[in-house]
Write a structure and sequence with these properties.
Blueprint: H1 11-21, H2 31-39, E1 49-53, H3 58-71, E2 76-79, E3 91-93, E4 96-97, H4 100-114, H5 121-135, E5 140-144, E6 161-164, H6 172-175, H7 179-186, E7 195-198, H8 205-214, E8 217-220, E9 225-230, E10 233-238, E11 241-247, H9 256-269, H10 278-287, E12 295-298, E13 302-305, H11 311-323, E14 330-334, H12 342-349, E15 355-358, H13 369-378, E16 383-385, H14 389-399, E17 405-409, H15 412-424
Parallel strand pairs: 1-5, 1-6, 2-5, 6-7, 7-8, 13-17, 14-15, 14-17, 15-16
Antiparallel strand pairs: 2-3, 3-4, 9-10, 10-11, 12-13
Helix pairs in contact: 3-9, 3-10, 4-5, 7-8, 11-12
Length: 425
């Protein structure tokens, strides 16, 4: 482990500086990132790169890939965002988050290389992840797109395989307000003559057209990537190759079969460079976890955390709840950002929730409790206002009986606040 040099700023100081330095939180475009990438000598990775984009499901696909690759004995770097409790969660090597001192060194290297080039928080930290991975002697990198794809900082590295998961309406202020517009942005991670996967069962024509135009090797779920349940197991087919008798994914929900199939297809298409035995695939599917994705944190009552923050993710959550009908009531702890589709999320889940505990999120993006309450009232939901997420969670726990279910959702921040409360005891 790298020791912290005397006088070196802490990771917390660095992150605070990056959060406040740039006047825009999000500034899409690759020119600045590519310039600093080249100054750092990171343009050509020494190992295969798998890039994962999409509206929902990115974190799950990255979890399957990362876990399976580590099980196969391959030195694996995984970069995801956002984090829940510690920034270190974003940059993981062989299943372990990197240490503070290593992160500080990487942030310093990017700072020295950027000169007078302005970088956002995400751009600076993404380049830091690339730098750490370049020094780690990796066999493979797995990179999760932050927002969109075409102009996202992660796209500064050319992938050897690109996966687009689902395509739904989210971040419309940056990506467009139709699936066609958003599909084009997601397809920006595809490369010529390179495996390009799409796991959405109804891919927008814009994505298909872009893949054809650049000559990507397109693989579609339902056509080139197929899966089916067989009793207590499932099988996945990629072209003519069959992976039989697979354990059901550890992550819950019917939608997880498509995510898992996408991960397995990526591995199959890179098999010549990343040989992964079937035993590692089976072990990784059964072991993969993603904090905040239908994460069970208690029993009697059943307590679940989920970062669902758009209608597509909320519908997937509703389907998981429908597959696990509770014996008692289902109580929601609900807080969202104001720039999200609050009404769409509520409509997706209102038939599965008996009572809502609603709270505001801190910060300028947080939806106020009255705004959330107005949506719930308009949808005919029973609810109670609370001053903050912790109070809503505690009241839900007090109100619930042993047979009830508590589901907290609406934002990464909602889940992070409850996890922090649980850690404090």
């Amino acid at each position: 482990m790298t020791a912290i040099t005397p006088g070196r700023d802490s990771l917390a100081t660095w992150l605070s500086r990056l959060e406040t330095r740039h006047h825009q939180t999000i500034q899409l475009g690759l020119d600045r990132v590519v310039q600093v990438r080249d100054r750092l000598g990171l343009a050509t990775p020494s190992c295969p790169v798998i890039t994962v984009g999409g509206t929902n499901g990115k974190g799950s696909v990255c979890a399957y890939l990362g876990t399976i690759l580590v099980m196969a004995g391959l030195k694996t770097g995984v970069y995801t965002s956002p984090h829940l409790l510690r920034f270190n969660e974003r940059i993981v090597i062989d299943g372990r988050p990197v240490a503070d001192a290593e992160l500080v060194e990487a942030l310093e290297q990017v700072e020295a290389a950027r000169g007078d080039i302005h970088l956002t928080y995400f751009e600076h930290t993404t380049l830091a992840a690339f730098w750490l991975f370049s020094r780690a002697g990796l066999d493979v990198m797995v990179l999760e797109v932050g927002l969109g794809g075409r102009l996202d900082a992660v796209n500064a590295l050319d992938p050897d395989c690109a996966v687009v998961t689902s395509i739904g309406l989210d971040h419309q202020e940056y990506l467009g307000d139709t699936r066609e517009a958003i599909g084009y942005e997601k397809a920006g991670i595809y490369r010529p003559d390179t495996p390009a996967l799409c796991l959405d069962p109804e891919p927008p024509e814009s994505l298909l057209a872009h893949a054809r135009q650049i000559g990507a090797r397109l693989f579609l779920v339902g056509r080139d990537i197929r899966y089916r349940l067989t009793d207590a197991t499932w099988e996945c087919r990629v072209g003519d190759a069959v992976m039989p008798a697979l354990p059901l994914p550890a992550l819950k929900g019917r939608h997880q079969l498509a995510n898992a199939a996408g991960a397995l297809a990526a591995l199959r298409l890179l098999h010549d460079r990343l040989p992964v035995p079937l035993a590692a695939i089976r072990a990784g599917l059964a072991a993969a976890t993603v904090p905040g994705r239908f994460q069970v944190v208690g029993q009697q009552p059943l307590r679940i955390l989920d970062v669902a923050h758009n209608p597509h993710a909320a519908q997937a959550l509703a389907e998981v709840l429908a597959d696990r009908p509770p014996l008692g009531r289902t109580l929601a702890v609900f807080a969202m950002y104001a720039d999200k589709d609050v009404a769409g999320v509520v409509r997706s889940l209102k038939s599965r929730v008996d009572f809502w505990h609603v709270a505001p999120l801190e910060g300028p993006r947080g939806a106020g409790v009255d705004a959330l309450a107005a949506v719930l009232e308009g949808e005919g939901c029973d609810f109670r206002r609370h001053p903050h997420v912790t109070a809503a969670w505690q009241e839900a726990c007090n109100m619930a009986g042993p047979a009830d279910t508590i589901i907290a959702f609406g934002s990464f921040m909602t889940v992070a606040e409850i996890l922090a409360t649980l850690q404090r005891g």
